[in-house]
Amino acid sequence: MIQVEGLTKYYGPFKAIDSLSFHADAGEIVGFLGPNGAGKTTTMRILTGYMPPSEGRATIAGFDVFEQSLQARERIGYLPETVPLYKELTVWQYVDYMAALRGMRNPNRAERVDEVLDRVEMLDRADSMISSLSKGMRQRVGLAQAIVHRPDVLILDEPTIGLDPRQVREVRELVREVGQERTVLLSTHILSEVSQLCSRILIINKGQIVAEDSPATLASRLQGTTRLSVRVGKATPKEVAKAIRGIEGIDEVIPTDEGVEVISSSQADPRSAISATIVQKSWELLEIHSVDMSLEDIFLQLTTDETMDEEEDQDA
Amino acid sequence: MHSVGRSFHNLWTVFRVEFTLFFVSPIVYFVGGVWLLFFGVFFLISLAAFNQGYEPTMAYMLNTMAFLVMFIVPALTMRLVAEEVRQGTHELLLTAPVRDWEVIVGKWLAVWGVMTVFILVSFVYPLFLILRGNPDLGLMASGYLVFWLWNGAVLAVGVLASSLTQYQLVAFIVGEGISLLLFLANALSSSSLIKSELVNNVLSALTLSSHQTSMLDRGLIDPVDITYFVGLMAVFLFLATQMLGTRRWRA
Ligand SMILES: Nc1ncnc2c1ncn2[C@@H]1O[C@H](COP(=O)(O)OP(=O)(O)OP(=O)(O)O)[C@@H](O)[C@H]1O
Ligand SMILES: [Mg+2]
Predict the structure, then answer these.
(1) Are residues A197 and A245 in the same domain?
(2) Strands A260-264 and A226-233, sheet pairing
């Protein structure tokens, strides 16, 4: 449904996204995950035909988003990052306007507007002026306009931002429902959201995709990896790090404020070797325990390592 | 794919909502009030002239109003595109399956519709003349036609001005400036500031008065004059469409 090849976008000399390639099929919910400024919104704006790419191409249902923009746009429902609303219209008028712009005609249109407002629990506010709505309500109205015409592809830029917990659940439910037959691409910073909803996750950092997999596979990529937190008395973290760095099966030792963090990917548990070394040095082993690696860690690891590498490059 | 029927649907959709939006904003009532005020003043002046035995004619009033609309009309159009850009709602229009020109023309038709309502209100005046005197109805009709077309052209200028910026005040001033040029271009040529005959001819061909006089004073409808007004609308709406399109690059 969505096919992206080598998509690049420059803002002036600044490269916001750098030859992105990915695809999303019907019946798939794909999560777009990345820190602020990673290029999520930029990518979505190209996919929705809002702006042209600098290089590369993207198609929606086989239609090029730039060359055959109208046909591509015909098939998209889009919720931009800052929900664009006409404050002087009522909720009903607004959703009806958006449905009409997407080519829906009466009498079906009016029925569908009622239906979709009911779906986002805004039917009782249908005649309210949009300017009088709360932030969460506005978000729901924005969502209503994105799905009103039953688009093949739904593109949601941070859809659950500003919603109360119950509404967050409702919206996820709705996305899951839509995602059963159609294609959903959503961006978020909430990691639990993608792991619950998405069949596939794209982690993007500085305009590049740094990981692409199902939440389960991404998590299992770290299954073989253990992270230990070690606290030692009578020695500074730096001394400890130096002493245990050479131990077999240890990939990385990071001194922290309180102790050291040890990353190991070998089958052998390095814990006994670590404690033996510390005892041998006549230090005091205060604590050694393993820390679960979550999606959050993958995210941080993938998106911060990159930064550190680059800084080192610059230093050199 | 994108049929004529679909274009009509899109134009009507944009028109309908924009027309509604006019009547929820206070500006339209303010502009309407100013319009009626000026109108009332002319009415009284003309009434006095009529009672002193002058010919019952519309030319004086329509000519003056043609000047005044340039200051009134940009207040109606300044919001149309500028506010969309400022609020970010243009992102919806530019990602909906509608063409840029359908958005621009739909908006322009809406504001011309509003102006047409105002003009219809001013029919009280010719009605009075018809009841009291024996005016030339053809002259009256052609006078109103030229005035209505001029309004359409000034509104197209206003839509262009609004698509240049996200600041309504800038749109207002630019809209006034461009229409004033159209109104006064021949003042430049008659000022003997410009020596080239060709430039002078072009300037006077672009000027409103060269195209309104025969319709206003003599009731003659010349295809050249009609083309002038339709051409102005087409050119400014085309430019406005292009400017809206540049938002995709200026994003
Ligand atoms: N209109 C613009 N002009 C210039 N640079 C821009 C523009 N829009 C975005 N950028 C830059 O492009 C980069 C990517 O921005 P983008 O909005 O796509 O990030 P994002 O992943 O959506 O971030 P967030 O999570 O904060 O929403 C950023 O560095 C941003 O400063
Ligand atoms: Mg963003």
Answers:
(1) no
(2) antiparallel
Alpha carbon nearest to ligand 1 atom 16, residue = A39
- Spatial distance between the Cα atoms of B67 and A188, rounded to a whole number of angstroms: 55
Specify whether the CB–CB gap between A283 and A242 falls below 8 A: no
Question: Is residue A217 scored above 50 in pLDDT?
Answer: yes
% pLDDT > 70, chain A: 91
Residue A303 inside a domain? The answer is no
Chain B neighbors of A48, CB-CB under 8 A: 95
Sign of CA dihedral A295, A301, A302, A307: positive
Taking the Cβ of residue B88 and every Cβ of chain A, the question of whether any pair is shorter than 8 Å is answered with yes
Q: Which domain holds residue A243?
A: 225-292
Q: A151 and A203 share a domain?
A: yes
CB contact A26 to B (< 8 Å) = no
Model pLDDT for residues A249-277, shown as the tens digit of each residue:
788 888 888 888 888 776 677 888 888 88
Q: pTM of the prediction?
A: 0.84
Q: How many domains does chain A have?
A: 2
Q: Which residue has the tokens 């610059």?
A: A314
In this prediction, residue A161 has a pLDDT band, given cuts at 50, 70 and 90, of confident
Complex ipTM over 0.90: no
pLDDT tens digits for A21-30?
A: 999 998 899 9
Q: Say which residue, A45 or B133, is predicted with more confidence.
A: A45
Q: Which residue of B has its CA nearest to A71?
A: B97
- A165: distance to nearest CA of chain B, Å? 27
Instruction: Indicate the residue among A159, A188, A219 that finishes a domain.
Output: A219
Is the same domain home to A99 and A189? yes
> Which 9-48 residues of chain B touch chain A by CB within 8 A?
9-10, 13-14, 17, 20-21, 24-25
Pairwise CA distance, residues B113 & B30, whole Å: 17
B168 pairs with which residues across the strands?
A: none
